[in-house]
Design goal:
By secondary structure, the chain is of the alpha/beta class. It folds into two domains: 3-39, no CATH class; 49-180, Protein-Tyrosine Phosphatase, Chain A (Alpha-Beta Complex), CATH 3.90.190.20. It has seven helices and six strands; from the N terminus they run ααββαβαβαβαβα. The chain starts with 9 loop residues before the first helix and ends with a helix.
């Protein structure tokens, strides 16, 4: 089975698929059944969920990434320039762990949330445009304007959502709604 035929794409998806297939083979599950499962697996909502492609800009909802590790894996799997929508309820999150990855992958950052001033100042040395948004609609609009054909707008906050949203699902749904209004 080739990597291109896997339903789960990106490094996290490939790693998960590889680990699951090894386990399945140890349990003597037939190869054809494994291939069938991995090729039509349904993507989890709010986890690297492709929302739309608007004028060549791909919009991805990764609202489920509520911690730095999850966001790191998502960013690491991106192969196109990224306009990153991040932030939320700041629990003293240290984005500095992401700085080398951000320099390599990020075209622009849009912080969304009530605690964004500290996050914005922590990114000042990256030489990446950083903007602040107070609503999801504003964040999506700013990301769309910052993007160009071939870019990805990625909502992968690395934070909890409790400052503006009830939970990550409400945040992800707000993102999808804003994208569909473009």
């Amino acid at each position: 089975m080739t990597l291109e035929t896997l339903a789960l794409q990106g490094h996290p998806g490939v790693r998960t698929s590889m680990a699951a297939s090894i386990t399945a083979r140890i349990k003597e599950v037939r190869s054809n059944f494994i291939k069938e499962c991995f090729s039509d697996f349904q993507q989890m909502e709010h986890r690297m969920e492709s929302v739309a492609n608007v004028h060549g800009i791909e919009f991805i909802n990764d609202s489920r990434s509520t911690n730095i590790n999850s966001t790191w894996y998502t960013l690491e799997s991106m192969s196109k320039p990224v306009i990153w929508i991040a932030g939320g309820k700041d629990s003293s999150i240290d984005y500095s762990q992401l700085k080398s990855l951000l320099k390599a992958k990020i075209k622009s950052i849009i912080f969304l949330g009530m605690d964004s001033s500290r996050l914005i100042s922590s990114m000042s040395d990256l030489d990446i445009p950083v903007t602040d948004a107070s609503t999801m609609e504003e964040a999506v609009e700013l990301a769309y304007v910052a993007g160009s054909m071939g870019d990805v707008v990625l909502l992968s906050p690395g934070c909890a959502s409790f400052d503006l949203f009830r939970d990550y699902e409400e945040r992800g749904n707000a993102f999808k709604k804003a994208v569909k209004q473009l």
